[in-house]
Amino acid sequence: MLPRPAGFPLWALGGLCALVLSGVPTAGFAQGRLDARYEATLSGIAVGKGAWNIEISDDSFSAASSGGTSGLLKAFSGGSGTAAAQGRVVAGALVATNYQASTTTAKKTEAIRMVLTSGYIKEYAIEPEPPVDADRLPVTDAHRRGVYDPMTGSMLRVPGNGDPLTPEACRVSAGVFDGRMRYDLKLDFKRMETVKAEKGYHGPVVVCAVYFTPVAGYIPDRPVIKYLAAQRNIEIAFAPVAGTRILVPFWMKIPTPLGPAMLEATQFITTATPPRVAKTQ
Fold first, then answer.
1. What sections of the chain are H helices per DSSP?
2. pTM
3. Cis bond leading into 274, ω under 30°?
4. 247 within 8 A of 260, measured Cβ to Cβ
């Protein structure tokens, strides 16, 4: 099983889907919302379903996801989870202030909470508190600076005024902290494609390669960490949230020892919302 952003077991199949990054802030930020549904497959067999809702206004944003295992996988490894982030929109940038996630399996329930201030993880906690592992590389205060939480980090901000779906959208990198592990992600442009959801979006996406580098909070000898760090064939396709310059994952593909894993939107309904009008006397 691949590592997952805390709180959304569905992402476990593509454990980097919420590890992507926000870009450079610019002015002229618009507003929009997304109502998406996803299905996860492993070697073509459905193993999970989930939902993702995003609301972006002129000065704030919120994002929430939920999901769980399904089909044959549910019989062997049932689980579900939720995750959410809230924050401000500052000069066009999404600046998270809070992140919460929870996962429930047959063996345990775990909750993660983080408080952020301008990219600094001011507070974070895991409940119940996990046991100390001497082999785990420690997370220092420096590792908690200049990072994104997994939820905010999954929304790719494209600066400028033109079409956000360009090769330049993929040429970014950043750090992410998920409450346990700190890692760096780098994107690179692969190609342009056209996608069609069963319900909602039909149009172009930009496909990016994703490269994962663990930094702290992990156990170096874990095979899954070595596997992900060595991967050069992980891809994410980004589609736009109408009315904004935010791109979010439409599908993600990652090779695994059990065959290709894929997370893909079956519903991707996105609408622009009109800006709020200031009240006048």
1. 71-76, 150-153, 223-230
2. 0.85
3. no
4. no
